[in-house]
Amino acid sequence: VSQSRYLHYLFVKGNEYFGDPMSKEEIEALWSEWREIGYLIHVQKKALPETWDDFLVYFDNMIETRLQKTDEVCDLIKLLNNPPPPYKIMNGKVWSSAMQPVSKLVMLVTGGMLPPKARELLGIRWTPIHDFAFRTYAKASKKMTPYIPDAVLNSGPLYIKLRRKPINKYYNLI
């Protein structure tokens, strides 16, 4: 599954698990918009399934027939489990201690969002305790969603505003 297509899956599933589930109409509208954006960046329309249901069939097929545990996947899992300090001056033990709970949560959410077959193929350990912790975290997140400021829930516009100059420079718009 290509990374960008997997992100679409995560976006929809993330809303389902952690926020307000999207309606079938919202999912189809979002998928249609993503297909148009793909076309703008030169992804052929035939390379993207027509509907969200078609995408889910594609997604399941990719997991069943193409997903492999590669060196890159192993490196990513190691990185998620033990992220390096962002600055060389940070003490490795202090950083490791501070990041351990965060990396455990990242792996819990990552594992919980993956279909069981993908977890199995990628060698991500998943027990009933992991499943219980993931579902508990998801329920708590869902309950907190109404109290999260809009700027945090929809960080895209703020991100674009803060990154406007580098984005414009990258795309030669300035």
- Cα distance spanning the termini: 35 Å
Question: Which regions contain 5 or more consecutive residues with pLDDT less than 50?
Answer: none
Q: How many helical stretches?
A: 10
Q: Average pLDDT value?
A: 86
**SS class:** mainly alpha
What share of the residues does DSSP label as strand, in percent? under 5%
> What would the principal axes of the Cα set say about the shape?
globular
Largest sheet: number of strands, sense, barrel closure: none
DSSP E strands, number: 0
**Amount of helix:** over 70%
Radius of gyration: 19 Å
Order of helices and strands: HHHHHHHHHH
Give an overview in words.
- By secondary structure, the protein is mainly α.
- Helix content is 70%, strand content 0%.
- Helix 5 packs across helix 7.
- The model has no long low-confidence stretch (mean pLDDT 86).
A few lines on this structure:
With 174 residues, the protein is an all-alpha fold.
Features:
mainly alpha, single chain, 174 residues
Which helices and strands appear, and what pairs or packs with what?
Blueprint: H1 3-18, H2 24-40, H3 52-65, H4 71-81, H5 92-113, H6 116-122, H7 128-144, H8 150-153, H9 156-162, H10 164-170
